[in-house]
């Protein structure tokens, strides 16, 4: 897993979502709809993505 990255895309608005979900999206560096960020493929980031799968999409 060393050196690998994942691309994460915000596909749904966090408006109306619980505050914890908003903080996770913000912590991933996502601010706008359809924005894609590249993060290291670590268990921490994978866990953050698993907490809000209804808002995010992992881009191949």
How would you explain this protein's 3D organization?
- By secondary structure, the chain is α+β, with helices and mostly antiparallel strands.
- The model has no long low-confidence stretch (mean pLDDT 95).
- The chain contains 2 helices and 3 strands, in the order E-H-E-H-E.
- It has a single domain, classed as Ribosomal protein L30/L7 (Ribosomal Protein L30, Chain: A).
Q: What is the residue-averaged pLDDT?
A: 95
Question: Helical segment tally?
Answer: 2
Number of strand segments: 3
Q: Strand order within the widest sheet?
A: 2-1-3
Give the overall shape, derived from the CA principal axes.
globular
CATH C-level class is: Alpha Beta
Short synopsis of the structure:
The chain is α+β, with helices and mostly antiparallel strands and 60 residues long. It has helices spanning 19-27, 43-51; strands spanning 5-10, 36-40, 56-59.
């Amino acid at each position: 897993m060393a050196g690998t990255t994942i691309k994460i895309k915000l596909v749904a608005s966090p408006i109306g979502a619980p505050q914890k979900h908003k903080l996770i999206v913000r912590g991933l560096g996502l601010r706008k709809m359809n924005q894609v960020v590249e993060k290291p493929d670590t268990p921490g980031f994978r866990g953050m993505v698993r907490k809000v799968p209804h808002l995010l999409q992992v881009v191949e």
